[in-house]
Amino acid sequence: MAEDLTIGKLALRASTKVQTIRFYEQEGLMPPPARTSGGQRRYDKAHADRLAFIRHARELGFPLDAIRELLNLSDDPDQPCARVDSVAREVLADVEAKISRLEALRIELKRMVRQCKHGRVGECRVIRVLADHSHSNCLSHGHD
Amino acid sequence: MAEDLTIGKLALRASTKVQTIRFYEQEGLMPPPARTSGGQRRYDKAHADRLAFIRHARELGFPLDAIRELLNLSDDPDQPCARVDSVAREVLADVEAKISRLEALRIELKRMVRQCKHGRVGECRVIRVLADHSHSNCLSHGHD
DNA sequence: CTACATGCTATAGTGACTGTAGGTTCAAGG
DNA sequence: CCTTGAACCTACAGTCACTATAGCATGTAG
Q1: CB-based contact, A51 to chain B, within 8 Å
Q2: Least CB-packed of A29, B38, B53, B112 within 10 Å?
Q3: What is the pLDDT of residues A90-119, one digit of tens each?
């Protein structure tokens, strides 16, 4: 049906950049589309659906490798969906870990900003807290 | 006092990698240290303090450019600390934005995972939700 | 038929490191 | 004094998911 999508129109529909679509093709996430005699890409609805899947999963924080796996799984609809479930749970756990890490940072940053007396840099609490080697005021220990 | 720190010992103290310290030097965040006749780096306490400052700021989510600015400001202790304060507030705002984005994702992921009936991929809710072009169940609209 | 928007490939840049290759230096033990 | 081997050195590639650029080629509207 809706054939003849140029890469630009497809990008517009999916709210992506043209380069991103070419990048997904290069990464094997999007199948190579038909080409005009002049070599330009022409997409159809199946491509548009697949791109929408990828973008939605990316917005939810799925890494490309996980998306690749989900796309492979969804090509095989009779398999049990345990693996799909576990990929999603991993992403959820990752998101939750990031949230708790950021909450701890937020508390420390808020205290830091609150303590600032707006004087001179020499007495600045913000600088003082950052320079505090002992981390005595610090709640957090993980990484980004 | 505590001179003669090799890059390895400094890395150990600061819980960083050796390469990270060399990277900070290359980026102008750490001043070039003394060298032995054979060309190996030897650090002192001032270096250790500066590295601790950088690491603590990084853990709090300050980007390297912001850290560079804070280090420059702290070299000039008579200046007003308004700029320091505003850099810290920017980082706080950034952290808070990331938290609310992630909270929205968490809600959608949790619902997705909850709806999974552990059947076959063909009927999997997780795949279904991700494929849902309309985003009708989707709370979020921003980027990572 | 001519503009010119859009497309093409290839390559480099982003941020903040991390890892590797291939070689050199240092400190301790024999 | 000499050897061993851990730790050091530089330079560069890789990570992730794009994004941007340069220098052409194509497609379409007027």
Answers
A1: no
A2: B38
A3: 999 999 999 998 998 899 889 888 988 888
